[in-house]
Amino acid sequence: MRSDPMIEIENLSIKLGGLPRVDDFSLSVPEGAFHGLLGPNGAGKTTVLRALYRAQKPDSGVVRISGKPLSAWSQAEWMRTVGALVQDGGSLQGLTIRDVVEIGMMNLPLSADERDARIAEALQIAGLTEMAQAEAALVSGGERQKTHIAQILARAPEVYILDEPSNHLDLCYQILLLDEIKRRGKTVIATFHDLTLAARYCDTMTLMRGGRHIVSGTPEDVLTQDNMAEVFRVKGQLENGMMRIVSAIS
Amino acid sequence: MRRQFNLTILATIILVAATLAGVFFGTADVTWADRWAALTGAPDAPRTLSLILWEWRMPRVLVVAIVGASLALAGVMMQTVLHNPLADPYLMGLSSGASAAAVGAILWLPSWVASTLGVPLIAFLGAVGAFVLTLGLSYRRGTMMSPLVVILAGVAVSLMFQSLTAFFLYVGDPHATRTALGWLMGTAAGATWSELWLPLGALCGVTVFALSRAQNLDALLLGDERATALGVPVRGLRVVVFCAVALLAGLSVAVVGIVGFVGLIVPHMARLLVGGRHLALIPFSLILGALVLVVVDLMCRVMLAPEEMPLGVLLAIFAAPPFILILRRVRHAF
Predict the structure, then answer these.
(1) So what's the ipTM on this one?
(2) Cα–Cα distance between B232 and A194 in angstroms, integer?
(3) Does any CB of chain B come closer than 8 Å to the CB of residue A2?
(4) pLDDT digits over A71-81, tens only?
(5) Per-residue pLDDT tens for B201-225?
(6) Buried b (16+ CB within 10 A) or exposed e, A129-163
(7) B interface test, pick of A91, A108, A160, A189 with most B CB neighbours within 10 Å
């Protein structure tokens, strides 16, 4: 099952404001894998994800999803296949929480009943059923994050691109929502700052620093003392599924 | 959707009633029987009254309705694509460009040039010129045209044309200045049937376009990145919307002068009543925009009769209370 690469990035380079943010970065994520992108601030994680969901044009390199270059996807096909959670806030003017979830389902070939059922299920998983008619612009940051995750759950795509999915969420919903995404068994690429959370969910992960690929592998292979010192400048490592951090290296 | 549909039907009925009121009421003192006879074209209708109703009031009310609907639609689209609740159709310097061109034409051009081209065409060209300048300042290859950059470019272009207008007014002939000031405050007096068709055609075309892109406009409310992640061609949509807004607002300015507030307030009022989804918001805003301007124009005509007030004066009074209410409701969101 996990043989064909679903996400392929080859020699990706992106400059922003003249500075290289992603530098000759390559990565392959097989179908059905949960892959984490980790690194300190400015490592280029979000920029890689932005290239994946087509918000950032690469200066060089190739990005493919399901074997197809990104430019070859039609809007309808893209909507069915790729769901992205991004770090960006729109005005949400006049939209209810339910509206936000439903907007994410445009172009999906579903009957009204199927659509309603999916929306209801996603809202229920995210604990938003009671707030479905609340104005999305007026709810808290955590509730808004849950709303956007519910939107992706309702779309049920083949590929999940998640930029900091645990942002603003309380512990319970970090676990509930990531458990649900993991349970679906689809391809996921996600950035994390919480390394314990990353180790809990990721089958494989990549460490980045200064826009470059440092190392890829299982959490045990990647979150070692040497890698933690080189990439995050801390003393510590993964022990029994938990990150044990001793101190920062000054 | 049922609630939104019912509200749209209700607003349409009120609009039809307001339009009839706009045609029936005015400064002429006549009986209801004569008014009805003139409207229905009865052979015994007083000829002067028929002329007033059909050649003066009817085109005026219809022009006002079209302008109200156009500015409301343009306001909805601008607030959506710029993610900004304070955006209005004139934000890209359109009103300032039109003002400078029109005031310049009224005060400085030889009368034969102004009368050959017509102030409306000159104002439209001014609006388009300012729009092209703003678009040129905001455009950068490979980006999604940041709303902030567009807004700042619009402010810069507006300031430039505003100072030009102020200069024209300051050094212009005082008599002609009064005419120019009247134009600046907006009036539909003297509207004719021939002025109606171009704005109507543009409104129909842009409405069809906006409704066909309703889902993509909905997605833009989630932000540029989220819309892009949903497969929406953000930059392309934004540029087409800007052009559509320039067309609607430019033509509106050309036929009635500067009419503020409608494009800012009506979208907010409509969102409060039918929500933010564009498939419901666009039709309702069109009706509400037309309704607001038809009612305000009627008040402008009858309140100080036989004198007439400029649209801009009453609109500001009419628009401030709902805007304060909306502000009180949404201030926590920003």
Answers:
(1) 0.89
(2) 31
(3) no
(4) 899 888 898 89
(5) 999 999 999 999 999 999 999 999 9
(6) eebbeebbbebeeebbbbbbbbbbbbbbbbbbbbb
(7) A91
